[in-house]
Amino acid sequence: MNTTFKEENNDFVMYFEGRLDTAAAPQVEKDVAPLTDCTGHDIILDCTKLEYISSSGLRIFLALLKNAKPKGSHVYIKGLNDDLRQVFAMTGFINLFEFK
């Protein structure tokens, strides 16, 4: 699992590549830590190259959302493939996040 953080157009963008499974989750949690200081920035989670997400990965996404909302920031998810979109639909996460 690889992640890349960039600031683009005043947004915080995190790129995910590979499988966000239980084994990768602890490192990904550390990687997304800069996103917790999102005041004044929206967050974009670019999942274009994400192949798989487990419940541990969903928990990380949910924690980012819960942190961002009180700060007036939005969390957008970009580039979900059909399999990932189905996971988000089955878990109800499709109703929690905004998509680009």
Give a brief rundown of this model.
This protein is α/β, with parallel strands linked by helices and 100 residues long.
Helices and strands, with pairings:
Layout: E1 2-8, E2 11-20, H1 25-31, E3 43-53, H2 55-68, E4 75-78, H3 82-91, E5 98-99
Provide a descriptive summary of the structure in words:
It is built from three helices and five strands, in the order ββαβαβαβ. It has helices at residues 25-31, 55-68, 82-91; strands spanning 2-8, 11-20, 43-53, 75-78, 98-99. A five-stranded mixed beta sheet has the order 1-2-3-4-5.
Count helical runs: 3
Rounded radius of gyration (Å) = 12 Å
Kindly report how far apart the N and C termini lie: 22 Å
User: Could you report the average pLDDT, rounded to the nearest whole number?
Assistant: 96
Q: Characterize the biggest β-sheet.
A: 5 strands, mixed
Helix content: 25-40%
Low-confidence stretches: none
List the secondary-structure elements in sequence, H or E: EEHEHEHE
Q: Decide which structural class fits the backbone.
A: alpha/beta
How are the strands ordered across the major sheet? Answer: 1-2-3-4-5
Topology, number of strands:
5
**Percentage of residues in DSSP E strands:** 25-35%
What is the approximate shape? globular
